[in-house]
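Sync notes, pocket subgroup
Present: LS, DG
LS reminded everyone that the earlier model was apo-only. Rerun requested with zinc ion included. Inputs:
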Amino acid sequence: MLGKLATYLRICGHDAAYALDRGVEADDAVADLAASEGRTLLTRDESLARDVDDAILLTARDVGEQLRELSAAGVDVSIADPPRRCGRCNGPLDRVAAAVDLPTYAPDPADTGVWRCLDCGQCFWKGSHWDDVRERLPD
Ligand SMILES: [Zn+2]
């Protein structure tokens, strides 16, 4: 339900696991996973938020509003610069030094910072997507 939010939180440098990415769906399993990995549980499910000690209940449907709710709850939702987490899979990012094995549409790392996910290989740089994300984050 909060997959889009997970992507934004990763862009903000948070280690944000998404339950469905992990094949976990049942409330009990989600609660157990959060507890065993020491994670704060973000959910729009009131009963789940009540059952878990370290949980933040979100009410908004829109990801921009959800980010504002998190900011109000004390979560840092400013964009991570340099980026640290893969928005797609939550893997750690590594700065790319040279244009080897980069997709053809990627900028030259000599001109623009490019980062690659160590887990899934996705490449990131500060392009138009970066600006879109920055605009959605609360001030
Ligand atoms: Zn990745």
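DG: The pocket of zinc ion is lined by residues 86, 88-89, 91, 117, 119-120, 122 (CB under 6 Å).
LS: The helical segments are 3-11, 27-36, 46-51, 63-72, 128-136.
Action: DG to write up.
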